[in-house]
């Protein structure tokens, strides 16, 4: 693999071929300007912050945090993971200021590893990075499809109230639909993506205020002692080592605090990239750490019964955060409508996270192909008339869909009617047994 040297230096956005400092710097790094440089620092930050998406990570893996350690694992684990993430982000920001290219990490590896190890370091970093980014897009959009599944279930009465659970095939179809929509949006000019990215960042930020709504609605709240000192050692996997339990609980925090490197991948589309790219990285991490810790802290005050939240027999079918929302509104109003609305707000944040994630990994695919490191590189590096790497966008969406096909879905959803009937009969039987035990 060899980094391609630009064969010309003409700025298409400026009359008479006048070249600005961003274009000149990119030429020094070995490339010509092909993407439209239209992102401000706010827009660059918004894309990274949307991908970090506190609501996506914390809501999706709340069950993991509760199962492995409970409040202790994420109330204290979140700032630990956030501190180390910020240290990594600061290091990346410094390198980004020196090498502001869409290649990001793989380009940096090539330069920093030296001429002997540079090609290998670049190749291995690039492939690990792009596969991980595709998997991230898959994870985000698939979690959105599952969230819609839970919203439909709760809006029709919940698992124990005769609610309707869509089949696993519909979940997969929804995943494909979301990817299709995101691919269409990513085919738009970068100016439109900039606007949508800012909306996504706003949804993620203001959605965190559910940390106030949910505990305020709940009629029963957890005590400060539970929130700050409870360490759940009873997990569904039979793990007894306390340290290992705590480490596994950190997965909830670490999964959330990813994607901030998107600011680097968008640097060839960012004005003053040597400054705004690094600022986008650091600010996305900093705001996410603060907002995320406030969110988990507030939501934990609405946690009452951890085993029930993790049980597949609860009304949400085992979706912990949905069950927390649902129990809060049911206890106050006797209706789960408010919970579904709140989940819809979270779902909107997840939707924009998926859109921005596809934007990010399509730029990696474009840059990697530009250096001839991917199959069909000549096609994937093409940029259309709107300065969008269109083939990289659609290829990334297709790969993300294919990755989801490997997921082992819950067979319960494909037989929902029979399962609901059986569950309701078991609940009735359990109540009868309890009555008999009391009588005896």
UniProtKB/TrEMBL annotation:
Native species: Nicotiana tabacum
Pfam families, A to Z: AA_permease_2 (PF13520)
Transmembrane segments: none
Keyword Transmembrane appears in the UniProt entry: yes
Cellular localization per UniProt: Membrane
One GO term describing the cellular component: membrane
Protein name: Amino-acid permease BAT1 homolog isoform X4
UniProt entry keywords in alphabetical sequence: Membrane, Transmembrane, Transmembrane helix, Transport
Cited PROSITE patterns: AMINO_ACID_PERMEASE_1 (PS00218)
Gene Ontology biological process terms in this record: amino acid transport
Keyword Cytoplasm: no
